[in-house]
Amino acid sequence: MRERLPAWLVEWLGVIVPVAQVALVLLVAWLLQRLVHRVVLRINARYDLPPQLVVGTRRVFGFVIYAAATMLILERLGVSGTVLWTAFTGFAAVAAVAFFAAWSVLSNIFCTILIFTTRPFRLFDHVELLENGEKPGLRGRVVDINLVYTTLQETGAEGAGTILLVPNNLFFQRTVRRWHGTPPALPRSPGVRAQAADTRLAPARGGALELDD
Description:
By secondary structure, this protein is of the alpha+beta class. Helix content is 60%, strand content 13%. The longest helix is centred in the first third of the chain and has 41 residues, at 7-47.
């Protein structure tokens, strides 16, 4: 094959072939990234995922694709595969230790994916996390869901306007009560009732004292 090529082209084969291989690897990586982008957009259109999850998924897949492309390019340029594998396994070990240290964050991220796929509740639903059976717990209107927390806005008279940041994995450790509309009002605690009764009786007591004077 080389004998049929011009002499000047044979001299450049050592440069042309690696460059062509690198260009081919980059082209395949770009096509894979575009494919992942389209798949993520279709999943987003079906399940209405939050923007943070969509962007994060695209970045993770993009990093994996281009990391693999970089390793292939280095191998095509003559870097030893053993060296590349050693570097990759070392990086993977460090990443595994870091992920294990942040297991709670990963648990919340995984539970976020489950929330958007299984749909135990949606945005603007009213939910309540029951502690044990029917014991009241955290309660509010879902106003935001991100990768770590679900934001609940309390609507009761005692906590109106209060914002609760609930870890997403907590929804899979408690019984969740859900309302599509406005939930029933919470019963007042005995302390609140006694305080309200004292407030109503205060003017009457004051009036009685004035009559005695």
